[in-house]
Amino acid sequence: MKPVSQIKSELACARIEDRSALEALYGADERKGVRQALAQMVRRFEREAVEEERLAHLYETEARLGSERGGGIICGLDEVGRGPLAGPVAAGAVVLDPSAPRICGLDDSKKLSSGARERISEEIRGSARACAVAYAPPQMIDERGIMYALRHAFTEALACIERQSVSVDVVLLDGDPLGFDAREVNVVKGDATCASIAAASIIAKVERDRLMEQLDAEHPGYGFATHKGYGSSAHIQAIRELGLSTVHRRSFCTRIA
After folding, report:
1. In 10 A of CB 219, how many CB atoms?
2. CA–CA separation, 143 and 149 (whole Å)
3. Rounded CA separation 17/61 (Å)
4. pLDDT digits (tens), the chain, 257 positions
5. Could you give the CA distance from residue 18 to residue 33 in angstroms, rounded to a whole number?
6. Cα gap 188→36, rounded to integer Å
7. Interatomic CA distance for residues 76 and 194, integer angstroms
8. Within 10 A of 34 (CB to CB), how many other CB atoms are there?
9. Cβ(238)–Cβ(223) below 8 Å
10. To 10 degrees, what angle do helices 32-68 and 19-26 make?
11. How far is residue 34's CA from residue 11's CA, in Å, rounded to a whole number?
12. Is there a contact between 38 and 8 (Cβ–Cβ < 8 Å)?
């Protein structure tokens, strides 16, 4: 009879296609450790099945939306940093490769840990046909408004994609209409339901976070590396003590400074 420790190791790395054979092999084993390991294996397979279904939905939604608009090359777009008190707004753009393997863990960037975003961002950049992140600076937001800045950033991100010799046929944009491009198709909660939009949200979040960490070194005392420019209580207190920096959105801070 195999030791419990050996069976645990075997079940911990088992594949879904081995489930029936393993349950038949060890199902009659009355040892507590084996029963627990079998139960853990089953729960893992169930979680993996749910995740696989969720991931498949992301890619199927994208394919359906593209097909409804005549097919061709699809570019997903999403923004990060619409609401902070400091730093730019960032627009991510991604054209996924339909022939590449699905990107495990792909999801709305807000649902992922920092470490997961970093890992998935690298995978996106390694497998996508094209990626880009473009910014609209705080000064533009102050002078022209956030909606103008969003259109500017999305236009720049899409132009960067097409400079990579990718001719886009369908532009899938998260959220409400912006009317910045004739190919625009709006997808409500697209970062949680559409693969390329989710990918765009991740690369934009990772790049903007890195930029805010750089700005933290250039403008010490505000805590940009921690709150990424959002209106945390520590950030608001720092503004009251230090005043506004050159990377603050003055139009967003009228009730603070």
Report:
1. 17
2. 9
3. 27
4. 788 888 888 888 888 888 888 888 888 888 888 888 988 988 888 888 999 999 999 999 999 999 999 989 999 999 999 999 999 999 999 999 999 999 999 999 999 999 999 999 999 999 999 999 999 999 999 999 999 999 999 999 999 999 999 999 999 999 899 999 999 999 999 999 999 999 999 999 999 999 999 999 999 999 999 999 999 999 999 999 999 999 999 999 998 86
5. 19
6. 42
7. 8
8. 19
9. yes
10. 170
11. 9
12. no
What tokens appear for 229 in the block? 């420019």
Closest C-alpha among 254, 256, 257, 244 to residue 87: 244
Tell me the two tokens of residue 124.
């996106």
pTM for the whole thing? Answer: 0.88
HSE at residue 52, side-chain half, CA atoms within 13 A, is 8
**CA nearest neighbour of 141 among 229, 238, 25:** 229
CB atoms within 10 A of CB 189: 11
Degrees to nearest 5, angle at CA 119 with 113 and 120: 85
